Amino acid sequence: MKQQFNVSLDPGLVRDIKHRSIDEQISLSDLVAQVFTAYLKGKTSMNAAPRIILQPMVHVEDMASAVTALEVLGAHVLQGSRDGDWVQLSVGGAEVGLLAHPANPEQGEGDVELNFQSHEALENIATRARAAGVEIASPVTDEGFGRQLQLRTADGLLMKINEIDTDLIT
To answer: Is residue 164 within 8 Å of 117, Cβ to Cβ?
Structure first.
């Protein structure tokens, strides 16, 4: 048996959740029940950011046109600038970075890089990687945006895990 209860929410949030239920092809009631269930089971925290976020990086030649193309898909700039060397965008519930210079194959970079933003200390990730036998391609280093750890899979895929220091990029 289901029971109804009333809540007051911001109209924009109501619109967004209605659209999400349509996109997910489930009823609004079922979507809200899933969200509440996940929250109560500890899968989601209202105060904590995810420990790690996938952020692929794409090397582009024309930053402004690449940003415009993603904006057509509904993207918006999170950090960086369409006129700069780097920009991070949010699109379709995901994030993608654009970098306005060629990839460096000598460092194992391709046109698309597998990047992650971490809200966990990179040293903890490095410790787990060593314990699991994952190659550390580059130890934790200071970068212009914060700090970075690079791991490499057995088949050569380079993964860059970043701690972003917003004071350095804003």
So the answer is: yes
